[in-house]
Design brief:
This protein is mostly helical. It has four helices and no strands.
Length: 146
């Protein structure tokens, strides 16, 4: 799971809003500030690429569904053909995530049907899409010192 910017920033709030005891001010406080800085760096990455990754992913899912509709839509009760009705809304992260969650539910159903049909070619296409989706959402941790 790639955390969202609100989740990362919420972690910073928790880390910085809890005042330490006087005896914990040295190393504990340095660690707390370090964790908050790390979360801020990850939040910055998510803010820089999060919307683009979601827009790409939602479009890629709809494209995959269009390809699969002929062979699998009837088995899935029209879930593939109707995926175009799942809109990205106002392109806020919340709207994009809501659309993405629905499209991913449909992807899981499609993947189950593809596996049941033993369709190795389409199974491979889905696995490649999973890989590409994860790569676009990946956040980079800084190198560890020493």
């Amino acid at each position: 799971m790639t955390p969202t910017a609100p989740e990362l920033l919420g972690g910073c709030v928790v880390a910085l809003a809890t005042p330490p005891k006087a005896e914990e001010m040295g190393p504990f406080m340095a660690g707390t500030v370090g964790i908050a800085a790390l979360l801020d760096m990850l939040a910055a990455q998510e803010c820089a690429t999060g919307s683009a990754a979601r827009v790409w992913e939602n479009a890629a899912l709809r494209g995959l569904f269009a390809e699969a509709a002929g062979a699998y839509d009837a088995r899935l009760g029209g879930a593939l053909a109707s995926s175009g009705e799942v809109t990205d809304g106002d392109y806020s992260l919340a709207a994009l995530d809501a659309a993405n969650a629905e499209l991913r539910r449909r992807l899981i159903r499609l993947h189950e049907a593809v596996e049941a049909a033993r369709d190795a070619g389409f199974d491979r296409r889905i696995l490649v899409l999973y890989r590409d989706m994860a790569a676009r959402r990946e956040l980079q941790l800084p190198p560890m010192p020493g």
